[in-house]
Structure formats: structure tokens, C-alpha cells
Amino acid sequence: MEAVVEVEGLEKVYGGGFFAKPTAALAGISFKIQKGELMGLLGPNGAGKTTTVKVLVGLVTPTKGSARLFGRSAFETDARRKLGYLPERAAPPEYLTGYECLDREGRLHDMAREERKKASARLLERVRLPDAVAKRRVGTFSKGERGRLGLACALVADPDAILLDEPTDGLDPVGRREVRELLVELKKEGKAILLNSHLLSEAELCCDHVAILSRGELKASGKTDELLASGTRVLAVRTVPKASDEDLAQIAKVSKAARREGEGLIIELAQESDVDKLVDLVRSRGLSLRELVARRASLEEFFLEKIGDAASSPPGGST
Ligand code: ATP
């Protein structure tokens, strides 16, 4: 099946003029998003997430590699007809009303008047922006209301590929959940969605695929469930008597990390087969196991493991 969104060997070096040092924002990344997939592009600040999306909407020219939509180069205008895009910190014009913003978006997509009206009513309901708010100027909107309007604007032309750069920025927890639910609905309708985010718990709840970007490089990508299953094994262990500091130090030697939590220990193992070693050690130290529970690594644990010590600093700096 042909991917709806596809980047291959994408590289981007910014700047390099007389005054500016070149910045390698993307160092050859590849991924695909199929119909009905919601992929989270995750990474720390400056990882290259926005640059990737900007290449896909034709705002940034890559230094190398290709970006394709519906099998065509993202630089062909026609390839972008069924593309919806919500930029980071989208700022609809403050002097327009919510309805006028949606109408303007529809005009940009050559939609007829009736069609624009219908789309506005449908989308305002979908993003839960009340009619009374949409009638006001955007300048009077709360942050959350602006976010909802931005999302509605991205969906006006009923796009089949949707690129969202931090769509829940500024929304409260209820608003964030509503957006997640909307994204899952859109996915079920067969849309291909790219969600840029650094809210990992949120991505874990709604993205069936994730790609982890750090300093312009993809550190991991694939199905969320499979990636997490392959990640760190975490065990919760309770012993009697309670493990001493020396016990903990010995346990730390056969594990990747071990710490106390309440009455028990939380132990991270590099591989499943280390469970036996751990049990042997616990028994040889005269401790009795009362509880041993395997827990899947969270996306946050997996993410931190993959990006290692990549701080929120630019990817590679100068080239
Ligand atoms: P954030 O989560 O903070 O929004 P990001 O992952 O979206 O970050 P990008 O905005 O793609 O990251 O930036 C990647 C790198 O490219 C950063 O080091 C940034 O400073 C640099 N960069 C982005 N745009 C430009 C530009 N127009 N000129 C020079 N460097 C740029």
C-alpha cells in the first residue's frame, strides 16, 4: 500500500550565510504514515519536528532527501490539496471572527459558499467551540478557544493527510482529552495523521505509531505497542524482610537501575532473561519474594532511554 505521508533520507541544514553558522536540523530521517494511522513525532526542543512538518507542507526546502504526500512530491501544489496543517502556535488573525477565519480557510481551498457554511457548522461542533464564541473576534478568544479554532481551520477541506504541530498547546486537561478523542475519530475515518508533540503521556494515549527524533536523527520508530514491548522491562518487587541498602546495591549490579518505592523496589532489567538472575540473587541474600510484577516501560521511560543525554540543545550545531 502506498503511504499517504512519506519522508526518505530527509536532511536539512539551515543558514550558513556570511553571519550565520549552519545548523543541521535533520540528518537523514525516513518514515511513512499509512491511511488510518496516527503517528506521534516526538522529540525534545530543537529535535527537528517542526522542520519536518514544514518540509511536508512545502515551507522549507530540504537539503537532501524526499518528502512525499499521496505518492507525489510534497512540493507539487496538487499533492497538498488534501492536506490539513495546524502550525505551531497558530495565530488566526485577531480582527476576524471565528466564522470568518473558517470561511477564509474554505475560500483558500476553493470551496463554494454553501459548502463552507456547512463545513464551519460541522467543525465547530467537532472541536466543541460554541457558536456564540465563534461569532466573536479572535482577539477576544481564550488560548484554548484559539487552539480549537486552529484545529477546525486545519480540517476545513476534509483533508486525508493531517499534520498537527503541538495541537494541544494551551488546552486544559479536558480540552486535551477532547482533542485526543477527535484525533482517534479522524484516524478511524481513514485519515493519515502526524502529531508533533513533546507531551509523551498524551502521545502514548492516542498514537498507534511513534517516531522519536533527537538532534535531527530518528532514534526509534514503529508501532507504539511493539516499541514499548521491546523496551526496558520494569519489575516491581516486594521482599520480606525489607531489602537492606546492601541488598539494593547487589540487585543494582544485575539490573539496569533499581530504586526503592514504598515498601518495595522498582527494578529495570535490560532483558527478560535477567528475571531469573534477579530471583536467584534475591533468594541467595535470604530474602523471600512476596510480589513480583512486570510492568511495560512507559513511553516516557522508552523515550528517555532512546534520546540518552540529548539535552534540549540544537542538533549537531554547526556542520
Ligand atoms: P521545538 O519542540 O522546540 O519546537 P523542534 O523539534 O520543532 O523544536 P525545529 O524547530 O525543527 O525543532 O528546529 C530544529 C533546529 O533547527 C533547531 O536547532 C533550530 O534552532 C534550527 N532552526 C529552525 N528553523 C531555523 C531557521 N529558519 N534558521 C536557522 N535555524 C533554524
Roughly how many Å is the radius of gyration? Answer: 24 Å
User: And the CATH topology of the largest domain?
Assistant: Rossmann fold
What is the CATH class name of the largest domain? Answer: Alpha Beta
**Please, what is the CATH homologous superfamily of the largest domain?**
P-loop containing nucleotide triphosphate hydrolases
Q: What molecules are bound to this protein?
A: adenosine-5'-triphosphate
DSSP, total strands: 14
Report the structural category: alpha/beta
| Net shape | elongated
Q: Sketch the major β-sheet.
A: 6 strands, mixed
What portion of residues belong to β-strands?
A: 25-35%
Q: Total helix count?
A: 11
Distance between the termini: 37 Å
Spatial strand order of the main sheet: 6-7-8-3-9-10
Poorly predicted regions: 311-319
| Proportion of helical residues | 25-40%
Mean pLDDT: 89
Which oligomeric state applies?
A: single chain
One letter per element, helices H and strands E, the order comes to EEEHEEEHHHHEHEHEEHEHEEHEH
Report the CATH architecture of the largest domain.
Answer: 3-Layer(aba) Sandwich
Into how many domains do the coordinates divide?
2
Element layout with pairings:
Blueprint: E1 5-14, E2 23-33, E3 38-42, H1 49-56, E4 64-69, E5 72-73, E6 83-86, H2 98-108, H3 113-126, H4 131-134, H5 143-155, E7 161-165, H6 173-188, E8 192-197, H7 200-206, E9 209-214, E10 217-223, H8 224-230, E11 233-240, H9 245-254, E12 257-261, E13 264-269, H10 274-284, E14 288-296, H11 299-307
Parallel strand pairs: 3-8, 3-9, 6-7, 7-8
Antiparallel strand pairs: 1-2, 1-4, 4-5, 9-10, 11-13, 11-14, 12-13
Adenosine-5'-triphosphate is lined by residues 14-15, 23, 25, 43, 45-51, 88, 198, 314-315.
